[in-house]
Amino acid sequence: MADQSYLERVRDFFGRDTFAMETTGIAIEDAAPGEATVTLDWTQRHSNAKGGVMGGVLFTMADLAASIADWKEGEVNMTVDASMQYLHGARDAHLRAVARAQRRGRSIGFYRVDITDWTGALVAQGSFTYMHKPLA
């Protein structure tokens, strides 16, 4: 996907996202303008009361992946709309979220995110709209 220089700049910038990177343990696997892949090795700390992966963990993965796909140096971006569909329960899984731009305009970007488990089964799917603008 990305050249190593771009990927390192993405990792440096998003490494400051304490919640996604440190609290949940999400890792940035790959990134390029308009697309990103993040992963998470599920542990008991990510589980809900039924023993499966908490939906908020999946949402965080999807939101981070979409934000990385929308990211551009010298801009700020933020989620303005998001929708998630939880399709299949996941437990004891290595999870992967892949975000792809559907369209990135001058100020708004639209992204689709697919989250799969270690078998490749689609666990969740999201649609994200981001606003981006130059830093002041």
User: So what's the overall shape?
Assistant: globular
Strand arrangement, largest sheet? 1-2-4-5-6-3
The major β-sheet equals: 6 strands, antiparallel
Taken in chain order, the helices and strands follow as HHEEHEEEE
Radius of gyration: 14 Å
Q: Please state the average pLDDT score.
A: 93
Describe it:
- With 136 residues, this protein is an alpha+beta fold.
- Helices cover 24% and strands 43% of the residues.
- The protein has 3 helices and 6 strands; from the N terminus they run ααββαββββ.
Top keywords for this entry?
136 residues, alpha+beta, 6-stranded antiparallel beta sheet, 3 helices, 6 strands, globular
What would you say about this model in short?
By secondary structure, this protein is an alpha+beta fold. It has helices at residues 4-14, 18-23, 55-70; strands spanning 27-32, 35-41, 75-86, 94-104, 108-116, 122-134.
SSE order and pairing:
Layout: H1 4-14, H2 18-23, E1 27-32, E2 35-41, H3 55-70, E3 75-86, E4 94-104, E5 108-116, E6 122-134
